[in-house]
Specification:
- With 217 residues, this protein is of the alpha/beta class.
- The chain has one domain: Vaccinia Virus protein VP39 (Rossmann fold, 3-Layer(aba) Sandwich), CATH 3.40.50.
- It has eight helices and seven strands, in the order E-H-E-H-E-H-E-H-H-E-E-E-H-H-H.
- It has a seven-stranded mixed sheet, sandwiched between helices.
- The two termini are 21 Å apart.
Length: 217
């Protein structure tokens, strides 16, 4: 079975990655995460993945040629609709343009399949995207309308929010002892069923292209 090389950027705790082995057995995943505590926990969760503590934005630029599939989830806080609802409570920042830099770069230079995931922003997206559930996806392949994403518990200030998110994502976020808020980390995870459906779609397209090439020979 051919090995399929995947780059998982801004990997966090691998919400998107959790069910990938159910799609394809022979995957080689390289995960990049800047937070060393998150990287350690990711490695514990996925011991067969190669985990690198680094700036994912720069890593993409330096290593994109070595992969068949790239998933990237650039930081979303400066794009989120929470910016407008909290504008009188927070220090305002410019939207982080790394998001659009990566979309443009991948669309023009990457030869494999890619997914750029982010929140629905408070502004009209500068590059059209595919809206699925609470997320936007920029891809170079068609996404199904139904990603089989499960119904989330919603953002809440309830004391048991982290407990509910632990159950939802099948992971105990209380293992994390770093500096980021637990509920922020838990909310940022992509639903694993959506991650599974997206990889499955990308792989099916790859297989169809290979069959077409064989027919031409």
């Amino acid at each position: 079975m051919e090995e399929y090389k995947i780059l998982n950027l801004y990997a966090c705790l691998g919400g998107n990655r959790y069910k990938w082995n159910e799609v394809y057995d022979n995957i080689e995943v390289t995960a990049v995460e800047l937070d060393s505590e998150l990287a350690k926990l990711y490695q514990e969760r996925f011991p067969n993945d190669k985990v690198i503590i680094a700036d994912a934005h720069q890593y993409l630029l330096d290593h994109y040629k070595g992969f068949d599939f790239i998933w990237t989830s650039p930081p979303c806080p400066t794009h989120s609709r929470l910016v407008t609802s909290n504008k009188n409570k927070i220090k305002m920042k410019y939207p982080d343009m790394k998001l659009y830099q990566e979309i443009i770069f991948l669309d023009n230079f990457f030869e494999g399949k890619y997914v750029v995931e982010n929140v629905i922003p408070y502004y009209t997206p500068l590059i059209p995207a595919k809206k699925r559930g609470r997320h936007l996806y920029w891809t170079n392949f068609n996404l199904p309308n139904d990603l089989k994403e499960r119904k989330t518990i919603g953002i809440s200030t309830a004391k048991d929010e982290v407990n509910k998110l632990c159950k939802f994502h099948d992971y105990d976020f209380r293992k994390y002892k770093g500096k980021q808020p637990l509920n922020k980390i838990a909310r940022n995870l992509v639903d694993y069923e959506a991650g599974k459906t997206i990889l499955q779609t990308a792989l099916n397209i790859k297989k169809q292209n290979e069959l077409k090439q064989l027919e031409l020979l």
